[in-house]
Amino acid sequence: MYPHVRLRRLRKNASIRSLVSEHALSLADLIYPIFIVPGEHICEEISAMPGQFKYSLDQLPLLLQKIAEAGVSTVLLFGATAIKDAEGRCAYDKNSVICKALQYMKAYYPKLVLITDICLCSYTTAGHCGPIDADYVRNDLTLDIISKMAVSHAEAGADLVAPSGMMDGMVASIRGALDKNGWIDTGILSYSVKYASAFYGPFREAADCRPQSGDRKTYQMNPANSREAVCEAELDIQEGADMLMVKPGMPYLDIIAKLYQTFSLPIVAYQVSGEYSMIKAASSEGWIDEKAVVLESLLAFKRAGAIAIITYFALDVAVWLKMQ
Ligand code: PBG
Known about the structure:
Layout: H1 14-19, E1 30-36, E2 43-45, E3 53-55, H2 60-70, E4 74-78, H3 97-108, E5 113-118, E6 132-133, E7 136-137, H4 139-156, E8 160-163, H5 170-180, E9 187-194, H6 201-206, H7 227-239, E10 243-247, H8 253-262, E11 267-271, H9 273-284, H10 290-304, E12 308-311, H11 314-323
Parallel strand pairs: 1-3, 1-4, 1-12, 4-5, 5-8, 8-9, 9-10, 10-11, 11-12
Antiparallel strand pairs: 2-3, 6-7
Helix pairs in contact: 3-4, 4-5, 8-10
Ligand PBG binds next to helix 6.
């Protein structure tokens, strides 16, 4: 006890603090989300996400050069379509902007790890994550369509597909379809624990996927629940997931920690659009120090147990880490 015990001894200077530091953030932890839209010469800033853009395919070479220079090794691709329908069938079009982007990236940046979001909300007219019947998403029909989507992405070069619709059986269905088509080495990063969150607001503008009526509470999880998160993750593991994701990020660190203690698969955290926008807004007012807050928030994900973090700050963080 005090006065013999003094924990401040190990905080005395930067070298000692670094010696006893339990966690660290590194370049390899960062996953950068990219929004790809149909059309040409599009590099449009997302109004609620200053510094983040939607790109048409012709803009990708420049962006990829930036990503490579920053040293970020993994990207998460979100697509869009000019033609939506009730079932979101354009999502598995082999000529989708996502498939074309994957082919380009695989050819010119073969070392870049390519992950694609597998969900129908940007492709259905109703803006739900699957075809609906009276505002209720039809689970098993959705599974058929997202499984075809996953196969088309695997064919085009995706290393991992990331189903994000919170449909029951989505991992088993996708794993089955990938294996049946010979894509046994394409992995699944499951959005295992995705909450029905208000923090996705800015993203829905970016991905043009706002539900036209109702909300996503009949498929995404209730923010009140944590035991159910364990159940979701357990099922995904049994169904063949290779990695698990928790989303949103900072308000759900307890969930990351719980999965980390319970399971041994790698866990990815998603620092979502609303988290990005809040940090951006406060720092642009001069109320917080952007760099310090971002680095601290990402370190918190690592401490909670995340192996990697999807963050819109990835390119900035890469530069900051190199300067440290
Ligand atoms: C698609 C999807 C969403 C996000 C990722 N994939 C939106 C949603 O579920 O409504 C949110 C990402 C973010 O907010 O950054 N289902």
